[in-house]
Amino acid sequence: MRDTAKTEAILTWYDRHARDMPWRVSPADKKAGVRPDPYRVWMSEIMLQQTTVAAVTDYFNRFTSRWPTVQHLAEAEDADVMAMWAGLGYYARARNLLKCARAVVALGGFPQTYDALLKLPGIGPYTAAAVASIAFDEAAPVMDGNVERVMARVYDEHTPLPAAKPVLYDHTATLTPQDRPGDYAQAVMDLGATICTPRNPACGICPWRDICQAQMNGTAAELPKKTPKKPKPTRHGIVYIARRGDGAFLLETRPDKGLLGGMLGWPTSDWSDAPTPAPPFDADWQKHPEQALHTFTHFHLKLDIMVACVGDIVPDRGTFHPKHRFQPADLPTVMRKAFDLCQGTWRND
């Protein structure tokens, strides 16, 4: 049974307080007949996975300026898309972005239902629900981290996450309306991002303050509860940065599968407890005094940096990129960190 009072209250709030985002159609524009572009909705949702709005906005604007339609993106060179994505993290998303764009073009456009969207490469249940709801007005329940937190508080749910996900999803489904489901989904996400925040929720200005069970019981600040995470392990590796006398740098494209798949970067060893040295050629490699430190989703990484200045040499792997074609910004963050640490090696060249 749907709770229309809760839904109407938050939609009224959203009509007044919706955040302005480059991929969003405002409530006023929707009333004037402007429809959300499924390409922009999909692009934003892929970029926003595990990332903040603040971090994504510039990337979104650059991507949609260079590739304004799904057709343009589908025709893009893989290397150009991977370079544009550099620094945003979770690089499998960039590979799937291209696969999905090409699948959509082959279909003649974006599917308009949750079930059909779910069949596309790189689209999981959350993204399928978000695109179906926001772009096509399907009443598909949309639940991200913000929505989980809001539902846990509104219903005073004390079961720790992730075990609480099914019951929180049921609450989300109960509240999702048949009319304006996309606006409702964005309203709850906005509520979680701006008012029902992880710490110090602003309950006094919340449109659901009078119906929030956690607010009534004084438990809002402690919800949602989470099962403690295991400490992340630390892995080690070796990165090899070689510069030729003419300023060219040795780079290689990493395998499509695995971390940083398909990205351009420095040759490295394996990343493990005891990595095996794997220099791309014999040279007078010098160890840099500092390590590049980076944290991935499941582990911390410490990279020893080996540096070499060489003449005209044929590497066992990788390709020397001329100085005028080398853009540090095209590197994944961990590779950029290694480069930044040892720039002084060539500063006076």
Could you explain the architecture of this structure?
The protein contains 14 helices and 6 strands. The chain is an alpha+beta fold and 349 residues long. The chain has helices at 4-17, 27-31, 38-48, 53-66, 70-74, 78-85, 92-107, 114-117, 125-136, 145-154, 165-175, 181-194, 213-217, 333-341; strands at residues 234-244, 249-253, 264-265, 286-295, 300-310, 319-321. The model has no long low-confidence stretch (mean pLDDT 93). It has a 3-stranded mixed sheet with strand order 1-5-4, covered by helices on one side. The protein has 2 domains: 4-222, Hypothetical protein, domain 2 (Endonuclease III, domain 1), CATH 1.10.340; 234-346, Alpha-Beta Complex (Nucleoside Triphosphate Pyrophosphohydrolase), CATH 3.90.79.10. The radius of gyration is 24 Å and the shape is globular.
Strands, helices and their partners?
Blueprint lengths: L3 H14 L9 H5 L6 H11 L4 H14 L3 H5 L3 H8 L6 H16 L6 H4 L7 H12 L8 H10 L10 H11 L5 H14 L18 H5 L16 E11 L4 E5 L10 E2 L20 E10 L4 E11 L8 E3 L11 H9 L8
Parallel strand pairs: 1-5
Antiparallel strand pairs: 2-3, 2-6, 4-5
Class computed from helices, strands and strand pairing: alpha+beta
* Structural domain tally: 2
Query: How would a textbook summarize the main sheet?
Result: 3 strands, mixed
Helix tally equals 14
Question: In angstroms, what separates the terminal alpha carbons?
Answer: 72 Å
Number of strand segments: 6
